[in-house]
Amino acid sequence: MIDFYKKNKVLCFAFTFLVIVLIIVLLIPTKKNDNPIPSKNEIIFALFGESNLTINVGDKYIDPGFYAINEDKINETDKVKVSGQVNTSKPGIYVITYIYDSKVLKRTIEVLETTVVDNSSLILNGSDEITIDLGTPYVEPGFEARDINGDSLNDKVVVTGTVNTFEEGTYKLIYSVINSEGKEYTKTRTIKVVNNNLTINLEVTNTDLTNKDVSVSVYVKGNEFAYLTYPNQTVTRNIVSTYTISENGTYTFKVFNQNGKEFTKTITISNIDKTAPTGSCSAILNLSSTEIKVNAYDDHGIYKYDYLDNQTIINSNNNTSFIYNKKTSKNIYVKVYDLAGNTKLLTCSVTDKSYYPAILPNQSENVIYKGETDTLKVYVTKESSYYITRVWVKDPYNQLNKFDSPEYGSKLYRPSELLSKANSKYNLTDKLLIGFNASGFYLKDTFDASSVNKYAKYDKTSVGTLVITNGKVIRNVYNKAYKTWFIMGVDKNNKMRIFEDSKASTTAEINKKKAWSEEVINSGIRNTYTFAAPIIMDGKKTNITTSMPDTSNNTTKNLQIFCQVNDNNFILVTAVDTKRNTIINRLLQLNCQTATNLDGGGSIALLYKNKNSNTIKKIVGDGRSLPEVGYFSE
Fold first, then answer.
1. What is the spatial distance between Cα 251 and Cα 484, in angstroms, rounded to a whole number?
2. Which of 528, 530, 523, 587 is nearest to 553 (CA)?
3. Measured by CB atoms within 10 angstroms of the end CB, which terminus of the chain is less buried, N or C?
4. Rounded to whole angstroms, how far apart are CA atoms 95 and 99?
């Protein structure tokens, strides 16, 4: 019966639930008819669950329940009388009686005697033998103690013995407990404390401020070494190793012994500086000096400054300013060094106060053309049979230009025609301009045109020599030259420079000519102008003569002479029917330092254009059809 009751317990409760629901439904009042017809039903009296049950000694008995409903469908369960008791501590058969309206129901409960099983136990968690490192705290793994009926006796367990983890040795802990029957259980755990501690020694190879990586030598000491973990989580099993650190910070090294115990060592690196200094610099260019100032910053401090003119160091110190007793180029730099060795090249902003003032004509001179702007001033005067044109230019290197006839194909043009084309091509409209014929002439088929560089159509250039226009090498003929010639140009320092070319026929002469050409190209000249010979050098008349054109000082052939007084002042002389010696003497009076004869045969031209005008005025000479024309423009 007991087994049957246990197996069908769910079914019994389900049945009970359904009956209760039925009763509630029956008790819900329904709408009455106007003329109800009374009806009679039978009394309902029944038990929930089975009428015969079995339970074990010690189990709690709970009556499954019962119900009673009268003829009028009214629940009268509370009027049922129940008698009888169940003694669950004593085996036997017990009867419960239920009485309602003379009806009697009975339920039989059999209490069975059970066999008691001793479930007492004592179990140690973890291992019975534990080995720990010296100095490592001992953590008790714990235990489980149960009474005969399975109830916990953990609070009854007594542990005797101690573990001193700071002293090597073998220690024992004894666990004991007595169950409810008085029976004692004991267990023993053995703990061995061993000295397997490890130490890490760290030595930094460089503690000075540096812009390079820092190496750390790592040494592991102790027994039972297993492996080392670097700060970047890589692993090594070497007791001696090297670790490289590339930036400042705190780094932790971890070493483990055979038991998995971890030992750590931390090091802080703060001497790495890979950041370049920051800052700015400025320079003021005077006529005879350059003032340079630098404002730089670095977290660890500045070591020194290199002051540079172009790529040349002109001074090196730890001062934040420097006065150079020379006029430099406009390319001023300061290289800043910090204490770690990092560098930063600063490009200085340049304020140019190095201009020579414009040299104006005397009041007695006859000025026939005058133009003045912020960057170009032109004064044309007439003296007997020649014209003197004074030119002040702010930036000669960039404002002295040249235009080539071959840009328009095979046809040659006169200077005025060439300059008219340059007017639109180089955006010269509305700008002040002074022009002159730049290079003598060309003789077709008198040189080897196969050596033309870059542009084959440029065979109509000055006779068989090096030609540079607007920074490009147009011709670089090495192996032939019609005569001995000179070329002139203005370099980046606004200095007029003269280079001597020569005819080449032998291998040695050709190599010499090649070296000469490379010298001119590497000097940074933007434009070259071919001419017969220099007539003034270093403020003195020269004795240099050439066979063509006629360079006699007493010649009265037309002359086009280009002269530099100083960095910003130039003089053009355009002469007709005037002895060359007369012109030279006049130029010396005007303090001319360097002068060249651009032509001496008849292709002279002097051209002028006012600002806000597009008309190019021919002052004197129209020149022959020739390859190149030179001009200053604002």
1. 75
2. 587
3. N
4. 13
Domain membership of residue 363 (yes or no) is no
pLDDT digits (tens, 9 = 90+) for 300-318: 999 999 999 999 999 999 9
Residues in the chain: 634
Q: Indicate whether 372 belongs to any domain.
A: yes
Residue 398: phi and psi, rounded to 5, are -100, -20
Strand segments, DSSP code E, in 361-440 are 367-372, 376-383, 386-393, 400-404, 433-437
One domain for residues 579 and 473: yes
User: DSSP label at 516?
Assistant: H
The whole model's pTM is what? Answer: 0.52
Contacts of 88 (CB under 8 A, 6+ apart): 55, 57, 58, 59, 60, 61, 111
Q: What pLDDT sits at residue 29?
A: 47
Q: Which of 37-51, 435-449, 599-613 has the lowest mean pLDDT?
A: 435-449
Query: Residue 17, SS3?
Result: helix
| Angstrom distance (rounded) from CA 252 to CA 233 | 10
Burial class (CB in 10 A: 0-12, 13-18, 19+), 474: buried
Q: Are residues 336 and 241 in the same domain?
A: no
CATH code: domain of residue 261: 2.60.40
My answer on whether 327 and 228 are in the same domain is no
What is the extent of the structural domain holding 77? Answer: 2-29+40-112
Question: Which pLDDT does position 242 carry in this prediction?
Answer: 97
In this prediction, residues 404-421 reach a mean pLDDT of 76
- Residue 473 CA to chain centroid, in angstroms? 39
**What percent of the chain is predicted at pLDDT more than 70?**
83
**How far is Cα 77 from Cα 45, in angstroms, rounded to an integer?**
8
Residues 569 and 426 in one domain: yes
Residues 509 and 570 reside in one and the same domain: yes
Query: Which of 70, 95, 112 is at the close of a domain?
Result: 112
CATH number of the domain that residue 168 is part of? 2.60.40.10
pLDDT in tens, 593-617: 999 988 656 678 899 999 988 889 9
Do 206 and 183 lie in one domain? The reply is: no
- The answer to whether residues 558 and 604 touch, using CB atoms and an 8 Å cutoff, is yes
Q: 547 and 438 in one domain?
A: yes
Instruction: Give the total number of structural domains in the chain.
Output: 5
Element of type H or E holding 4:
helix 2-7
Structure tokens at 489: 């140009």
Contact at 8 Å (CB) between 221 and 201?
yes
Which domain-ending residue is among 179, 194, 209?
A: 194
Give the 3-state DSSP-derived string for 315-373, with helices as H, strands as E and coil as C. EEECCCEEEECCCCCCCEEEEEEECCCCEEEEECEEEECCCCCCCCCCCCCCEEEEEEC
Name the DSSP class of 134: T
Do residues 156 and 224 share a domain? Answer: no
Q: What distance in Å separates the CA atoms of residue 336 and residue 276, rounded to the nearest whole number?
A: 9
**Would you say residue 80 lies in a domain?**
yes
Provide the pLDDT confidence category of residue 406 given band limits of 50, 70 and 90.
low
Confirm whether 614 is domain-assigned: yes
- CA pair distance 58, 282, nearest whole angstrom: 104
Check whether 17 has a pLDDT greater than 70: no
Please answer whether residues 82 and 97 qualify as being in contact, where contact means their C-beta atoms are separated by less than 8 angstroms.
yes
pLDDT tens digits along 148-168: 988 999 999 999 999 999 999
- Whether 327 contacts 290, CB under 8 Å: yes
3-state secondary structure 302-313: EEEEEEEECCEE
